[in-house]
Specification:
The chain has 228 residues and is an alpha/beta fold. The protein contains 7 helices and 10 strands. The strands form 2 sheets. It has a 6-stranded mixed β-sheet with strand order 6-7-8-3-9-10. A 4-stranded antiparallel β-sheet has the order 2-1-4-5. The relative contact order is 0.20. Bound molecules: adenosine-5'-triphosphate.
């Protein structure tokens, strides 16, 4: 069974008295363990698609199935629990909470899951070591570089060991060295821990390193390319 199945998915936004079709008749399957990039120009529907896969939004037509479960048939509370326990999110602008330290930011999901403070700290410290940001745990986001903030955001996304990590333009605010390093880190988590990654990008450097590239234009799938 695929981890993600999109079956003729459509999403139309209502803007004033206009209908904006952001995703149109979109079908695909993503298996556990894939490392897939959604490519396409600005406005082609990448963020909308990630929001649908991440159960942050519901399609206006078609079905989204995660692990065989139809997202549309779940209650809001059940979806929130599902997101917390199975999906990690990484955003373009990091979205760290400014008043919390790096450690507190990274612990956030574990705290929501009711994991004890000692265990949270142990798990997050292990991840900080692995991501090369050990020593920065007491800094607040404002005192970290962009690359460091994005690593903290990755730590937050993976701390609860989600089966699926979704990232919306994760390298958009990073220079090319930091982008390459972040990508390498995500590849390593994919290879060694089997985490499934789906992320959006229009950065050629990112696209060229993905194993599977799904290209969108005007909300439609126009190409689905896999590398061996
Ligand atoms: N909340 C909304 N209300 C109305 N229209 C929206 C909304 N969100 C997105 N859109 C429109 O839907 C289309 C797809 O947008 P989306 O953000 O998914 O594209 P994208 O490929 O992620 O773009 P970018 O690379 O610029 O982030 C665009 O035409 C956008 O203007």
């Amino acid at each position: 069974m695929p981890l993600i199945e999109l079956d003729k998915v459509g999403k139309t936004y209502r803007s004033g008295n206009r209908n904006v079709p952001a995703v149109v008749d979109f079908s695909t399957r993503i298996e556990a363990g894939e490392f897939t990039v959604l490519a396409g120009p600005s406005g082609s529907g990448k963020t909308t698609l990630l929001n649908l896969i991440g159960c942050l939004d519901q399609p206006t037509s078609g079905r989204v199935l995660i692990d065989g479960q139809d997202v549309g048939s779940q209650s809001t509370a059940k979806l929130a629990d599902f997101r917390r326990d199975h999906i990690g999110f990484i955003f373009q602008s990091y979205n760290l909470i400014p008043v919390l330290t790096a450690l507190e930011n990274a612990e956030f999901t574990l705290m929501l899951q009711g994991v004890s403070p000692a265990e949270r700290r142990r798990r997050v410290m292990e991840i900080f070591e692995r991501l090369g940001i050990a020593g920065l745990e007491n800094r607040r986001p404002d005192d970290l570089s962009g690359g460091q903030q994005q690593r903290v955001a990755v730590a937050r996304a993976i701390a609860a060991r989600p089966s699926l990590v979704l990232a919306d333009e994760p390298t958009a605010n990073l220079d090319s060295t930091n982008s390459r390093e972040l990508l390498e880190l995500m590849r390593q988590l994919n290879r060694e821990d089997g985490m499934t990654f789906v992320f959006s990008s229009h950065d050629p450097q990112v696209i060229e390193r993905a194993r599977r590239v799904i290209t969108l234009r005007d909300g439609r799938l126009i190409e689905d390319r896999r590398r061996p």
